[in-house]
Amino acid sequence: MLTKTKFWSLIALGFFALFPIWAPVMWNHLATEIFIIALFAMSLNMILGRGGLPSFGHACFYCVGGYTVAMLMMKLRLPFGIAMIAAPIMAAIFAAIIGYFSVRLTGIHFAILTLGFSQLVWAVAHKWYGFTKGDDGITGIPVPQALQGIIPYYYFVLAILIACLALIWIIQNSPFGSTIVAIRENRERVTFSGLKVWHHLWLNFTIGGFFAGLAGSLLVLLNRAVFPDFGYWTKSAGVVLMCIFGGVGVFIGPIIGAAIITLLEHYIAIYTFYWQFALGCLIIVLVIFLPGGICGYIENKLRGEKKITEEISYASQSGGS
Amino acid sequence: MSSEVLFFQFLSGLTTGMIYFLIAAGLTLILGVLKIMNFAQGGIYMLGAYTAYTFMKQFGGTNLGFWLTLIIAPTAVAVFFTLLEVLLMRLFYEKVALYMLLLTYGILIVAYDLARMIWGWIIKTAPMPPMFHRSVEIFGRPFPLYNVFLIIMGFFLFFLIWFLIRRTTWGKMMRAAADDREMTASLGLNVPLIFSSVFALGAWIAAMGGALVAPMGGMAADMGIDAGIIAFIVVVIAGLGSLPGALLAAFICGEVMAFGILILPELAIAFIYLVLVVVLILRPWGIFGKPVIIK
Amino acid sequence: MLLKVEDLSKSFGALLAVNHVNLEVEQEEQVAIIGPNGAGKTTFFNLLTGYFPADSGRVFFNGENLTKLSSDQIIRRGVGRSFQIVNIYPETSVFESIQMTVIASRRKSYDLFSPAKKMYREETQRILEAVGLTNLKDVPGGSLSHGDKKRLEMGMVLALKPKLVLLDEPTAGMAPEETLATMALVKELAEKERLTMIFTEHDMSVVFAWAKRIVVMNQGRIIADGQPEEIKENPEVRRVYLGEKK
């Protein structure tokens, strides 16, 4: 059955599949980068939007994924395939450890603990020259023959993105996904349905870390380099921003947010050094006028009429109950 | 390692700790009373430093100029940010905390680029006032007099604020508003005004911290971003809203940095994050904070 | 005997909220616990469901010692609870709220791959009908009227297939007709699903009309336990409720 969602998904898929054929090379590179950051944002939204936990240390797992791939391929000369599989697993391990301590907290305490852990990892990556080459980062990472052109790599990343989105969609619509949403709405009720809340949040956090690590590894192979600021707190804040900008309550919200903000950063940076000024102003405007993010705003507009009709019909029904 | 060297490291840590305290003190007030996670705090500190730099240069690097700057610069910066609070931040007190976080983050990066636009990219140092152009001898080694001054100023400011909070009527109103916003409002007190005054004080301390640090060198817009994080770490280790806690936590962090440099110079900064993580695992509400029920 | 409470006590500072309470409830019994505000009824429920630990005493359910278990563990063993301040999912629809609870009770909450929307639909529908919310199945929980919210909560409790149901002031905040309707529903469900039920109330008329066994609490202690007629005549109960002199 061809639902609206499936229809638009197919259109989007077609568009992106044909994109490299007519687009200039630089746009391919940018598009690939956007796919990767979109995956990163989606991984955060599992924790932030669905789970309701404001993680300000998500860049940590992005960073771990990137460094794992870089170090396995450069130091241990492991093949690409093994490194790509190891990266998200390593990130998931870090997420499991950090999540174990963090999900017991909520709100600001959760935010700060995730921030603290993430900065700790950053500090080690930044300063432990012997192990991670510190500030210099790791460069010159060998990309396998088949993926060396921008076009093959574009399709590779697109394929992985689609697979991950499908997986995330399945997880979010599974009983586990419903449980996470329920926890966000009313923890007590979930506990009194016989479930261990923190256990579920822990698993959710780990899964989020897994996909973030995958995104990090993909970026490293795109740019052939990894640097400590993959894990700096401003990167974590940036991806939180993308989710909120796009809309945390909508499945594709983080993707839209990631795309728009990445495009803005790129194009503003061309005209001025002071792109952070522009970004900052954008954030301020966004937070004041569009609290639901862009998708939330659009959704509200669309739902506006539908909601009014719903409320009228409900009011006429509930009189008798 | 001789005891003189250790003592010197201790003093160095004390200086660093005092700087951390100045950045964090304002945040602990803002976080404790207004309950907002002010990412922009580091930016206020940074702009305080840059503004002081400009004033000190304009006054020709004199002693008088220095003292005048200390009066004018932090006040100017505090007024600027308090205006922002009144115009922008007030809208978000009742909303989900996440939005306030993003708003202050936005203000921080605007401040960052603003500093670069106005003052450029080169690292700056404000002129050291002549009266501090010397060192004291401690255990036969020279220790900058300015550092001593800084430490003393820090303690002075601590007692000043502590006095304001604990011994004045304003302080009582502030604490009441922190505990129970609605109750305080229903008693007829102007809660938004109280909040703004607390914010102004918090901003002033941070800007004063920046101004005091200006002659010590190394001013770059990045100091705002790094300071922002340090402020949070100190405040969270201390426990949200505890001023004495902030002083203690700042010292701990300062000493951890100082001695960390002796042990593993490169990873000194990591030790601070380690302290944060350990505290948050064992006592998530900070050393002096009120226990939070965790399900 | 389904539930045996032995010498249960809990203090909050100087306040002795629950004071050496002993209670035995048989299978399929329906017991009402009444008492003035502050008598300790809700605290008692909180202790039974592991909301916080007791200072002393023990709770046996189905022969098992529940005293030191956490809330989720107790619920999993077959105890369902509704709250005085109704505890539902504000943004999730009625249907999905109940569906979610069925999924939880069938231990499927860790399933990452099945489509949740398709699971246990008949079971959910059955519960919806049992609590009379079929017409409202797509309405978000937060938009319901107070009475409907209570029904939703009851539905979620039923979804857990509990052996023992604890209802904390099920008719709180309701107008008289709604109270009648709610109590009728509760009674119907108890009989149809063969539930053992303990409910707290402080509306006397409700209790005397509906309960076969009444337990009276005051200041943390049980002062009377028996059939409605006995309770009505009990001098201490009269003193506590009606202010009569001994």
Q: How confident is the prediction overall: mean pLDDT of chain C?
A: 86
* CATH class bucket of chain A: Mainly Alpha
Name of the CATH superfamily of the domain at 1-70 and 196-246 in chain C:
P-loop containing nucleotide triphosphate hydrolases
**Rg calc of chain C:** 18 Å
List the strand order in the largest sheet of chain A: 1-2
Can you tell me the CATH architecture of the domain at 1-70 and 196-246 in chain C? Answer: 3-Layer(aba) Sandwich
What does this protein structure show overall?
The complex is a heterotrimer of chains A (321), B (295) and C (246). By secondary structure, chain A is mainly alpha-helical. Chain A has a single domain, classed as ABC transporter involved in vitamin B12 uptake, BtuC, CATH 1.10.3470. Chain A contains 14 helices and 2 strands. The longest helix of chain A is centred in the middle third of the chain and has 27 residues, at 197-223. With 295 residues, chain B is an all-alpha fold. Chain B has a single domain, classed as Orthogonal Bundle (ABC transporter involved in vitamin B12 uptake, BtuC), CATH 1.10.3470. Chain B contains 11 helices and 2 strands. Chain B has a two-stranded antiparallel ribbon with strand order 1-2. In chain B, helix 1 runs parallel beside helix 5 (145-167), helix 1 packs antiparallel against helix 10 and helix 2 crosses helix 8. The model of chain B has no long low-confidence stretch (mean pLDDT 85). The model of chain C has no long low-confidence stretch (mean pLDDT 86). The longest helix of chain C is centred in the last third of the chain and has 17 residues, at 176-192. Chain C has a domain at 1-70 and 196-246: P-loop containing nucleotide triphosphate hydrolases (Rossmann fold). Chain C is an alpha/beta fold and 246 residues long. Chain C starts with a strand and ends with a helix. Chain C has helices at 41-48, 71-76, 94-105, 121-131, 146-159, 176-192, 204-210, 228-233, 235-242, and strands spanning 3-12, 15-25, 30-34, 56-61, 64-65, 79-82, 164-168, 196-201, 213-218, 221-226. The interface between A and B is large, with 50 and 45 residues.
List its traits.
heterotrimer, A: 321 residues, ABC transporter involved in vitamin B12 uptake, BtuC, 14 helices, 2 strands, disordered C terminus, B: mainly alpha, two-stranded antiparallel ribbon, 11 helices
